[in-house]
Fold High-affinity zinc uptake system ATP-binding protein ZnuC.
Amino acid sequence: MSAAKTSKPKSDEPLVTFDDVRAGYDGTPVLRGLGGTIKRGDLLAVLGANGAGKSTLFKCITGEVKPFSGTVRLHDLPRRKIAYLPQRSDIDPSFPISVFDAVAMGLWREIGAFRGLSRAAEAEIWAALDTVGIAGQAERRLGVLSGGQFQRAMFAQLMLQNADLILLDEPFQAVDLETADTLISLIDKWHGEGRTVIAALHDAALVRDRFPQTLILARETIAWGPTAKVLTSANLVKSGEVTAAWQDSELGLSGEAMRARMSA
């Protein structure tokens, strides 16, 4: 990933506020006491291990997951202006849809699911496909694409949604370096346009190089702020310790064993 990250100044205007949020599934909390504010125009990385709560945080923002307690407040942000790209494992690749039609889904909120596409809409779709470099794959079935081609198609769909807030869950997973460069260039473009972009990642080097703001998450907030200040060895070690503790807890290890792990 070669290009430098953008330096567009961000706003101090809040976009999403978390107030002591506990959230999870089937009564079991995944996020515990999350508090903080995403500001309009932020380019924010959410850094954490698998199971750290990154996807749950995104689903709290979209409204798919309701907190057990605490609040998630959207400031002048209709949910229709949120675009969410889940992990590829959450998308059914066997669904019989062409690449063109999958990208066209980005316009559904604008034109409806059952209306025909105008010439202008078709032109938008082709332009998005061309931008991500897969116009030649438009008639292929989405499920037969490589990992990189698939993610390019999903980013083309995001382009058409014209969202104010873009949520990306592990967007560079299983993609080649050329594709990663293309996708990070789009992220830079969105950020330069004043959109807010949040990406769930586990690559600390990528975060340090490309994202001005970082939330280190291990089911609770380890640190949140400017990347240069919060992405430290001490915070990464603490994140690893907290992660190991809840992993041990889920495996049924005793409190004594957990304390030994924490102090080792």
